Amino acid sequence: MNAYSTALLRIKEERAGAASANNAAEDELKKTNPEYAALNEQIAKLGVSLVKATISKAPTEEIKKQLHEANEKKLSLMPEKKYYCEICKDKGDTSCMCFKKIYTEILMQNQTDLNTGISFDDFKTDCYSDDINSEKYGISESPKSYMTKVLNHCKKYAERIPDREQANMIFTGKTGLGKTFMCTCITNEVLSRGMSAIYIKASELFDEITFKGNDELRKEVENTKLLIIDDIGAERQTDMRYSDFLDILDRRNILHEKYGYGTVFSTNLDPKALLSYYGERICSRLFGQYEIIRFAGDDIRLK
Question: Which residues contact 4 (CB under 8 A, 6 or more apart)?
Answer without folding.
Answer: 103, 196
